[in-house]
Amino acid sequence: MEAIGATCALLYGLNRFTDVLKPEVKECLTPTAYTPFTLLEKEKLTHDTMRFRFRINRPRHDGEREHTVDEIIQSGAWAIDVKDHMVQTYRTYTPVDMHMDGERYPRGSLSRFLHGTRVGDQVEMRGPILTMPYKPGQHKHIYMVAGGTGIAPMYQLIDRVLKNPEDKDTKISLLYGSRTEKDIIYREQLDKMAIEHKDRLDIWYMVDQGPTELPLVGYPTPQLLRDFTKGFTGGKDIVLVSGPDPMMKCVSGLRPIGPSQGPLSGILRELGFRQRDVFKF
Q1: Where do the Oxidoreductase FAD/NAD(P)-binding domain residues begin and end (predicted)?
Q2: How far apart, in whole angstroms, are the C-alpha atoms of residue 64 and residue 67?
Q3: CA 80, 83, 87: angle at the middle one, nearest 5?
Q4: CB-based burial of residue 227 (10 Å sphere; 0-12 exposed, 13-18 middle, 19+ buried)?
């Protein structure tokens, strides 16, 4: 497996306004086939994070396909497959607030392909793909451990839970690690949600290195995760883990390619968590 180098974010907007695209344009999402989408904008977010914004329209004039797309999006956490048509490979990225993040592998063909694109180029995508089923009120307390752009599925679920009246009793704790304080993606949005829902959302920021005024500096340790998950109740609560391979290996063990979660290992297993207590993205 290739080592993770710099990180990039791939973001796209699902257009909810029918007047942005002309009726004859058929740049619509479908989970069954790849469709080319036009790159509208590239923007540098942090020293190692890039935003790619595409023009993507929701399915129209096709009731069955539109129903399928909406049904998947409303069923839990979801993702998009992005293909490098030059070598016929793809990677999966998770949308965040109708955008999606991904990690950059320095030797990965898809990373090179994406970073080599220019505004006006087209990139093939398919989706949405359900990555984690979720029903309102399914868990009493959701503990999230995220690193880098692994915040993507967490942000997606946080936004969903806090906005759903049926989830009004669900609490969320987020431990979010970044390389430096400047590398914390979506901090403004997360802080705003934490203020608006201070009785339901608790955020712990952690950075690998300073300078910083944050209290947590370093890497996940058994004591940190023990303190973070204090109060965890098996059967009612769940721990979600998402991030770069080194973090995943340390905290929960890697998730293999495909639907399998793989065996639980790492710190969470040392602390006594069971396979059913943890979900790995």
Answers
A1: 144-252
A2: 5
A3: 160
A4: exposed
- Could you tell me which CATH class the domain 35-131 is placed in? mainly beta
91 assigned ligand-binding residue = yes
pLDDT digits (tens, 9 = 90+) for 212-270: 999 999 999 999 999 999 999 999 999 999 999 999 999 999 999 888 999 999 999 99
Give domain 134-280's CATH architecture.
Answer: 3-Layer(aba) Sandwich (3.40)
Q: Do domains 35-131 and 134-280 have the same CATH topology?
A: no
Structure tokens at 215: 């209290």
Q: Where are the domains of the chain?
A: 35-131, 134-280
pTM value?
Answer: 0.84
Strands (E) in the chain, as ranges, are 13-15, 35-46, 49-57, 76-84, 89-95, 100-101, 122-133, 141-147, 171-178, 201-207, 238-242, 278-280
